[in-house]
Amino acid sequence: MTEVKSFLSDLDDAVARGTAESRKRALWHATDLLIAGRYSDDEIWTFGEVIGRLADEIEVAARAQLAKRLANLDNAPINIIHKLALTIRSMSPAPYSANPSSSTITP
User: Fold this and answer.
1) CA-based end-to-end distance of the chain
2) Which candidate among 1, 14, 33, 91 keeps its CA 20 to 30 Å from the CA of 49?
3) Which H helix or E strand runs over 5?
4) Are residues 15 and 54 in contact, defined by beta-carbon separation less than 8 angstroms?
5) Which range marks the domain in which residue 58 is found?
6) Count of domains in the chain?
7) Residues in contact with 103: Cβ distance below 8 Å, sequence separation at least 6, in sequence order
């Protein structure tokens, strides 16, 4: 776990020094790797940390795109799904509530 903490510290430094475009490229690359592979729970957690730190630094529209890419992924890191759900909810023009008697969501 010490190696992971060191890696994440290095990632924080890279995110701070990188350009918006380089952070976005790194985000899409990490996302592609996650989608394409089969990983252990620890590896998925690490992907979640990496993707989360990069996603914090990109525009809201790109975070919405990320949410769409991860939405149907069985092994998507749960912390990222929660974070992205909040992003999408904040983009909604009106609050939504689920109607318990139907399967639709209504404004």
Assistant:
1) 45
2) 91
3) helix 2-17
4) yes
5) 2-90
6) 1
7) none
Residue 94 reports pLDDT greater than 60: no
21's CB contacts (< 8 A; 6+ apart) are none
C-alpha closest to that of 48 among 65, 61, 33, 58: 33
Domain membership flag for residue 37 = yes
Q: pLDDT-based confidence at 97, cuts 50/70/90?
A: low
- Report the range of poorest mean pLDDT among 7-11, 46-50, 68-72: 7-11
Is residue 72 a part of any domain in this protein? yes
Residues 6+ positions from 94 with CB-CB distance below 8 Å: 107
Look up residue 95 and give its two tokens: 């609050």
Please indicate, yes or no, if residue 102 is contained in any of the structural domains. no
Measuring CA to CA, which residue among 92, 11, 77 is closest to residue 45?
A: 77
The pTM assigned to this predicted structure is 0.71
